[in-house]
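Input/output pair, single chain:
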Amino acid sequence: MSSSVIYCFETNLGDKPMASTTNKQRPAHVPEENVYTSLHWLMIAAYAASAVAVFLLIKSAG
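Output:
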């Protein structure tokens, strides 16, 4: 696993926050509901879709 994936899992478990007000201030043009401090469900869906796509690509090539 890459270090970024491991970092995301650690963040989801509460070891380190992804973003917090102590690390960096939210820009004025970014709404509060767009600030994520843990692993977002859409990231899990994107990784799952990517894995399925790679599997299907490899299976159809063989």
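The radius of gyration is 16 Å. The chain has two helices and no strands.
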